[in-house]
């Protein structure tokens, strides 16, 4: 009973991911997944927010909203076409670059085809912190040259995102560690950072959000998924609920490292994960159900992609 709450395609994230949305859905089906979420990146508001590969490809902000509309149309077609084989959730990954993005995210979430959105932070001081070392260094410099202060700023921006958006799923909670000097650092070593971590986790619990165990960290060389062990333990201790994501960027990533993610969860003593389900037409929000970890493990063993 494997599933993923977070994915991307090359069709609607060109230059960032690979493969068509339908091919990715077909891969999820052939992998035996019981549910799969389609969550392309949301459109952005300013040309200054474009990534280098988008600029090189000649993209402009004017192309992004029509692309998002095309994504929702195609996702809806696929949901109907493959309804007898797999439940597909339709959503998007929010981009909290600055507070002015909140109204757009809320507006996009009101589309009746959208089941939920992922609340993510990829920027600090409006600078990408997971793109490359140069951008990460720029963000750190704006934070005064201190990596500890950069982490504090990241979690402060995440807190503002949580307060403003109340996302059903929180994406890669500690993404900030990817390009840091010690990606597997125990954040409890930084008192100020850890206090902000605990504050943010409490907000997620209060809002009833799900924290994703995101296996993409493993394919990027980290020792543990997002979020790391100490954050997961704190979150679970506060009564938080976990879900599972591969954050795939193409068919090659579907279910990748789920085996290691399950081992990680077993080591935490986790016995269940939580899954959003497409809501009924008369309902305005996706449903929520528990899936025993042992059943997830059985499904992951059938994927055999690790």
TrEMBL record:
Q: Which reaction does it catalyse?
A: L-histidinol phosphate + H2O = L-histidinol + phosphate
| First and last residue of the signal peptide | none
Q: Which SUPFAM superfamilies does the record cross-reference, listed alphabetically?
A: PHP domain-like (SSF89550)
Q: Which GO terms describe its molecular function?
A: histidinol-phosphatase activity
Pathway listed for it?
A: Amino-acid biosynthesis; L-histidine biosynthesis; L-histidine from 5-phospho-alpha-D-ribose 1-diphosphate: step 8/9
Please give the biological process terms from Gene Ontology that the record holds.
L-histidine biosynthetic process
Q: Which InterPro entries match?
A: Histidinol_P_phosphatase_HisJ, PHP_dom, Pol/histidinol_Pase-like
By sequence similarity, the record places it as follows:
Belongs to the PHP hydrolase family. HisK subfamily.
Pfam families from the UniProt entry: PHP (PF02811)
Task: State whether keyword Iron applies.
Answer: no
The record's GO CC annotations read: cytoplasm
- The molecule here is called Histidinol-phosphatase
**Domain PHP: where?**
5-216
EC number in record: 3.1.3.15
Q: Which keywords does the record carry?
A: Amino-acid biosynthesis, Histidine biosynthesis, Hydrolase
């Amino acid at each position: 009973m494997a599933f993923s709450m977070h994915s991307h395609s090359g069709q609607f994230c060109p230059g960032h991911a690979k493969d068509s949305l339908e091919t990715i859905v077909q891969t999820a089906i052939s992998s035996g997944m019981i549910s799969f979420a389609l969550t392309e990146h949301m459109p952005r508001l300013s040309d200054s927010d474009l990534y280098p590969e988008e600029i090189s490809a000649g993209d402009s902000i004017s192309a992004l909203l029509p692309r998002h509309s095309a994504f929702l149309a195609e996702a809806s077609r696929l949901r109907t076409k493959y309804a007898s084989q797999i439940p597909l959730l339709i959503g998007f990954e929010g981009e909290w670059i600055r507070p002015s993005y909140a109204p757009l995210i809320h507006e996009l979430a009101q589309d009746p085809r959208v089941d939920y959105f992922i609340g993510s932070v990829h920027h600090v001081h409006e600078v990408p912190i997971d793109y490359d070392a140069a951008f990460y260094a720029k963000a750190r410099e704006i934070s005064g040259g201190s990596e500890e202060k950069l982490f504090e700023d990241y979690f402060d921006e995440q807190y503002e995102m949580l307060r403003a958006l109340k996302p059903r799923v929180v994406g890669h909670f500690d993404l900030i560690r990817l390009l840091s000097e010690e990606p597997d650092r125990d954040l409890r070593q930084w008192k100020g950072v850890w206090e902000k971590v605990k504050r943010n986790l409490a907000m997620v619990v209060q809002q009833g959000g799900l924290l994703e165990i995101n296996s993409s960290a493993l394919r990027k060389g980290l020792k543990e998924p997002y979020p790391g062990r100490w954050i997961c333990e704190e979150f679970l201790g506060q009564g938080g609920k976990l879900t599972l994501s591969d954050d795939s960027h193409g068919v090659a990533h579907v279910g990748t490292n789920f085996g290691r993610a399950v081992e990680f969860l077993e080591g935490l003593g986790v016995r269940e994960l939580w899954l959003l389900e497409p809501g009924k037409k008369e309902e305005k929000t996706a449903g929520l159900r528990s899936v025993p970890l042992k059943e997830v493990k059985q499904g992951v063993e059938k994927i055999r992609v690790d």
